[in-house]
Amino acid sequence: MDAIVKMLEKHQPFFEKISRNIYLQAIKDGFLGCMPIVLTSSIFLLIATLPGVVGITLPQPLIDWCNKLYNFTMGVMGIMVAGTTAKNFTASMNRRMPAGKVLNDGSTMVAAQCSMLLLAVTQFTTKFNGSELSVFDCTSMGTRGLFSAYIAAFITVWVYKFCVSRDLTIKLPKEVPGAIAQNFRDIIPFGGAVIICGIIDVVVRNLMGVPFSELLIKLLSPLFTAAETYPGLILIQAATAFFWFIGVHGPSIVQPGIDPIRLANQAENLQVLLAGGHPAHSLTFNMSLVGEFGGTGATFIVPLLLILFMKSKQLKAVGKASIVPVAFAVNEPLLFGAPMILNPYMLIPFVAAGCVNVSVAKFFIDNVGMNGFSFVVPWATPAPIGIFITTNFQLIALVFVAIIILLDAIIYLPFLKAYDKLLCDQEAERAAELGLESDGAATIAASTSAPAAEQTTAAVEPTAAAADSKPVADQPEPASDASAKKDVDGLKVLVLCAGAGTSAMLANAIKEGAAQTGENIASSAGAYGQHTAIMDQYDVIVLAPQVRSYYNDMKADTDRLGIKLLAPRGKEYIDLTRDPAGAIKWLRENLD
Question: Which helix (H) or strand (E) holds 302?
């Protein structure tokens, strides 16, 4: 087992390189930027549909209004993702641009949205009340258009890079205000990106008879079909857990490629549910509630197992500290505290538990009558509650939850017991060593107690006398704390992780520590990828372990802005979240 872990550690740089790929980063961060659309639209959808489950009939105008809000948010998801993906891809590309040449992220964002419409949306004319109207087919403006959104974003940014790098822009006299001049400089790349996507649209429609968005779905449908089989679901979940096990944020690598189909399947499930049918898609956005039941590795039950069945003081302490965060899918305290990351005892259950969960979920959906997930709930919703809601409050879903909790416990318990025995042996050895040291010290003290006391008194008295003989002004002051306080006073600290869950734990610890020590420190938590617009408002940025692989990219930005960048490693980070005063001390020690 140790040999396997050593092999994984050897290849960790390669996997981290994959996670830093600028295309994957842009997709992940662009989608993350649009999560408020997904979550907000789902609230209105729940308002419109769930009361009927318990026999409550809402006024039809209210239902229509909620559906309208859903359609005009989730229904334009593809357009929005095109913009946010282009914006994030532009930020990555700007780090690679020649000195003095910068891409305008506002312009690339708008250009990508226009280009996405060309690739995904069909325009036709129809008659209404005797008048001829021009109509947009909105089908691909939402989740069905996500692939078109990504392609439009990448094409747009590359066109801008080509034009700006070669000065293919309209230049105005220096007397023209900068904002106006920038608009003219963007005309050529903006037009180039739109024209290229327009040409692609014409070619695809004439050759294939479908818009570009439908072409991608048609070509990739075998892949989607394969992904929704048992082997496909297991492979997706195993890869996610495997990458996390070696210290690379697995969802960042695996999910960007499957997010479009996961969202499209969930939207289709919803349509089937509202029509009175059985939602049958298992590869959906909220399948992560099952595969990542309590966080990657399906760790929901693990803290309770540590508390109830482990004898090691370390594991019991980790269980108590992590049980609440893990309930809300923030399992980093467990991953780095136990630890589970790169722990050879944990490799098999960490990968296997999620795979078993998704397999059982597919079986329940295909054979037992449980609904496929239809409503979108926030990722931090406690998994049992989220599963119950998104299956439309089916009682069979509660049975399913109970079964996977039991299965996960069975999978984890033997490996935890083996690891617990190792830690208990280590703790016993340390206790024995401390006991010997204590006995030896007691023996020495007993044989020389009187002289030792005399020596101590003699040593103390001259020191006190020397201190008293000095003028007060000449006596050394405990200035180290004062100078350290000056170093951190007035700081603004931003903590970043993958989903703003773990980062909130450290940000809160810093706030609490500042209150305890009387420091004037402001701390905030955020998700990596959503920080670019606000990072210049902070003095210090702290990267959580799961986004530490982005350190080099982040360093280029923080150095340019004069911001201090810190990146504590796994266990150190978790220790800081539990020690508010220690978090302040750590900030002091790490500031230049």
Answer: helix 302-309
Tens-digit pLDDT profile for residues 499-530 = 777 788 899 999 999 898 888 889 999 888 77
> What is the phi/psi pair of residue 450, to 5°?
-70, -50
CB atoms within 10 A of CB 152: 34
User: 81-124, pLDDT tens digit by residue?
Assistant: 999 999 999 988 988 888 778 899 999 999 999 999 999 888 88
Against a cut of 0.70, is the pTM above it? no
Establish whether 497 is a catalytic residue.
yes
Share of the chain above pLDDT 90, in %: 32
DSSP string covering 516-548, please?
A: HHT---EEEEEETTS-TTTGGG-SEEEE-GGGG
CA distance 258 to 119: 20
The token pair that represents 63 in the structure block: 């239902």
Query: Strands 131-137 and 122-128: what pairing?
Result: antiparallel
Is the separation of the CB atoms in 565 and 541 below 8 Å?
Answer: yes
How does DSSP assign 381-428, residue by residue?
Answer: S-HHHHHHHHTTS-HHHHHHHHHHHHHHHHHHHHHHHHHHHHHHHHHH
Residue 96 tokens, joined: 């690679």
Nearest to 503 by CA among 364, 358, 384, 380: 380
User: So what's the pLDDT on residue 178?
Assistant: 64
Least Cα distance to 570 among 334, 344, 320, 306 occurs for 334
Query: 157 with 89: CB under 8 angstroms?
Result: yes
| Mean local confidence (pLDDT), 291-314 | 93
Instruction: State residue 474's pLDDT score.
Output: 40
Longest dimension (CA), the chain: 113
Cα(26)–Cα(150) distance, rounded to whole angstroms? 9
Q: Taking a C-beta distance cutoff of 8 angstroms, is the pair 497, 544 a contact?
A: yes
pLDDT at 480 > cutoff 50: no
**Distance, C-alpha 123 to centroid of its chain:** 37
Residue 479, pLDDT score: 40
Tokens 């606000």 sit on residue: 534
Mean pLDDT of 42-63: 78
User: Cα separation of 520 and 512, whole Å?
Assistant: 11
CA distance 336 to 569: 9
DSSP 60-100: HHHHHHHHHHHHTTGGGHHHHHHHHHHHHHHHHHHTTSPTT
Residue 445 in tokens? 């003290």
User: Of 339, 332, 328, 337, which Cα lies nearest the Cα of 300?
Assistant: 328
Sequential DSSP letters for 549-561? GGHHHHHHHHHHH
Q: Is 497 helix (H, G, I), strand (E, B) or coil?
A: strand
Q: How confident is the model at residue 483 (pLDDT cuts 50, 70, 90)?
A: very low
Looking at per-residue pLDDT, the higher value among 132 and 256 belongs to 132
